[in-house]
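Lab notebook page, bench 4
Experiment: in silico fold of construct C2
Operator: M.H.
Input chain length: 194 residues
Purpose: comparison with the prior construct
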Amino acid sequence: MIGLVMAGGKGTRMKLPDEKLLLKYNKPIIQHVIESLHSSNCFSKIIAVTSTNSPKTKKFLLKNNIETFDTSGLGYVKDLNSVLNIIDDFVFITSGDLPLLDKEIIQLIVNSFDSQNVWTSILVTNKFLKTLGIDSDYSVNFDGKKCHYSGISLVNAKKISTLEKVEENYMILDDKKIALNLNTKSDYDLLSTT
């Protein structure tokens, strides 16, 4: 399985002068994610997906010997599609802005993966997010509950030629380690209280 870190976004919702993945939580956020993937021992390779939107993040990754894959930076779906088209393996996709991600939660998700599914998105319930004081714009109704995407998916890239018409499966996992995406300044402020 390959670990894929999405690290090419603009981070415009943060409204900060610097790239959000380089914000510090003892160390840069992207470093937390990369180290968690490495320490999980679940992946044959880890690749960070970058773009012209994140030049400082790419420089940081290269300086730390992390393999990068450059995309157009025209959007999450297009960037992800371009990298999945060249991979012929199972893929653990994570957003680079999950500072609480750790090896245990990664191992739990990977061990729960049904390889017969083409795409499995990991969700957190709206109720759980509210208990943490987090809001999210990306919701889906699943199993009778309003849920939100965590930024983590498990994909069988061998079965994908395009992201159009891919059947999406879901798994709910209410855990703050995957619930806290840094999308806004208030999310980052909330991080300091954990």
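Observations: The chain has seven helices and ten strands. The longest strand covers residues 145-156.
Next step: discuss at group meeting.
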